[in-house]
Design brief:
The complex is a heterodimer of chains A (about 230) and B (about 220). Helix content of chain A is about 35%, strand content about 20%. Chain A is α+β, with helices and mostly antiparallel strands. A six-stranded antiparallel beta sheet of chain A has the order 2-1-3-4-5-6. In chain A, strands 7-8 form a two-stranded antiparallel sheet. In chain B, helix 3 crosses helix 4 (about 80-100). The two termini of chain B are about 30 Å apart. In chain B, about 40% of the residues are buried. Chain B has helices at about 10-20, 35-40, 45-70, 80-100, 100-110, 110-115, 120-125, 135-165, 170-175, 190-210. With about 220 residues, chain B is mainly α. Chain B contains ten helices and no strands. Classes of the chains: A alpha+beta (about 230), B mainly alpha (about 220). The interface of A and B includes residues 2, 12, 13 and 129 of A.
């Protein structure tokens, strides 16, 4: 290998770093619209999945417009904020605000059988990074109609199992209230007791993700408690 | 390394570059490189396959790029140059996956970014691409990526089959109906230690068949 002068090394490094920077910014800029579209479509698919409507990339936008009737943002007292688009609210940013100022999005959907469902978004912490999801409540505002979860970087096959239908479907018909008080749904290591309406099975090898999910469901839904009790018929 | 001008593209020597890493010079079982990701992404077959493809693309292209620049890279900063090339390629692969294969990119999540730290890639750049022409370097990259991928797929096959009772997400054990006779999936198989043991068994089998791989005491 030749011996290069210090000047050569400096010039070489600068040229390399600048060209790599240009290349990467170009790639990012060119691909950004497609990536954002993917994220938006995925969000719509997730919201639809929580009311048990199966969609794919091609029909998600269309199905979303058909099923989601209304969306608005409330605070912990159950009062609506005007002029805020619920779809664009990012929960992670909201959670950093004081509780009273947080935007809490609510999506009102109509299921295939004509039931009106309330979809509530959730956001929490898994083992490696954020986890999030949507839970839809039936007309009694207490029974879960469906749930969908997703994650940024949980271990494939372990914590990442929270976004499988097998895990999510356990939440169907679970109740977050018992005798009028909020109890949420527990994710139980070693398996839920059969017939218990407030428990689902945890994930083997994914204990911390399971715990994080349980905390996310509890802390996320409790913020809507006032709204839910005001609107319960 | 001898440098013969006007070498044909396809000779017995270039073929060896592709086939050797699959067996006798396998990066995982013989050189014991890239173990970390081999343990992490082998719980299910699908992520393992996508990971194998991504690593192959990155190692082949970075080998090619480094081989093209090999004469102008200053020796004192060569490791940094290699890292920049690898990191750039990995970010581009990641961006493309996010734009065109969103589902797959979500499944692999952090592991795509972690390709940067895969010792096989830097090992190949340092050991091969810095001293060889672009075309053999490219083939060497493909070969090593494939050798890595092969082991990943074998390990993930056993881990998914015995640990989750499925192959490529298809519930084989359930269809066979063995659960009715009291069979249960082995939860141990999903945990990282069993990946190491599976890998150890593969190395054992390979060495038992090829005595030449056993080191002299």
């Amino acid at each position: 290998m030749k011996d290069f002068s210090n000047k050569y090394i400096m010039v070489f490094s600068v040229v390399m770093v600048v060209s790599v920077a240009i290349l990467l910014s170009l790639t990012a800029m060119l691909l950004q619209p497609m990536q954002e579209k993917n994220v938006e479509v995925e969000k719509k698919m997730n919201i639809l999945a929580s009311i048990n409507v199966v969609s794919d990339k091609s029909d998600a936008v269309q199905l979303y417009d058909r099923h989601i009737r209304e969306s608005f943002v409330i605070n912990t007292e159950g009062k609506k904020f005007e002029g805020v688009d619920a779809f664009t609210v990012t929960l992670r940013a909201e959670q950093k605000k004081p509780l009273a100022e947080q935007y809490l999005p609510v999506f009102i959907a109509v299921a295939d059988n004509g039931d009106t469902l309330h979809i509530l978004p959730l956001e929490g912490k898994g083992l490696w990074g954020p986890i999030w999801g949507y839970v839809s409540l039936k007309q009694d505002l207490s029974t879960i109609a469906g749930a969908t979860f997703d994650h940024k970087g949980e271990t494939p096959g372990l914590g990442a199992e929270i976004n499988t239908t097998q895990f999510e479907s356990q939440f169907h018909d679970k109740s977050i209230y018992e005798n009028g008080s909020f109890v949420s749904v527990k994710v139980v290591k070693g398996g839920a007791r059969p017939g218990n309406p407030h428990e689902v099975d945890g994930i083997s090898g994914g204990t911390i993700t399971s715990k994080g999910l349980e905390a996310m469901v509890r802390d996320g839904l409790v913020k809507y408690e006032k709204y839910l009790s005001q609107n319960r018929k | 390394m001898e440098n013969v001008e006007k070498e044909p593209l396809w000779t017995a020597k270039t073929k060896k570059l592709l086939t050797n890493p699959l067996g006798m010079e396998n990066p995982i079982t013989v050189q014991v490189l890239g173990i970390c990701s081999a343990l992490a992404v082998t719980v299910k077959m699908k992520p393992a396959i996508v990971m194998a493809i991504s690593v192959t693309v990155v190692v082949a292209l970075s080998n090619l790029i480094i081989a093209l620049m090999r004469k102008s890279i200053p020796g004192r900063i060569r490791i940094i140059v290699q890292l920049v090339v690898i990191a750039t390629l990995v970010i581009i692969v990641d961006q493309f996956l996010k734009a065109f294969a969103f589902d797959v990119s979500k499944q692999l999540s952090v592991f795509v970014g972690l390709i940067i730290t895969n010792c096989i890639i830097m090992g190949r750049l340092e050991a091969f691409a810095m001293a060889n022409k672009p075309w053999p370097s490219f083939l060497d990259g493909i070969g090593n990526g494939a050798g890595y991928g092969l082991i990943l797929i074998i390990v993930s096959f056993f881990r998914e089959f015995l640990g989750s009772g499925s192959i490529m997400g298809y519930p084989v054990m359930e269809k066979l109906g063995v659960y009715k006779f009291g069979y249960e999936d082995n939860g141990m198989m999903i945990l990282p230690p069993m990946a190491l043991i599976t890998l150890g068994l593969i190395i054992w089998v390979q060495r038992a068949r090829n005595k030449s791989l056993i080191e002299n005491k």
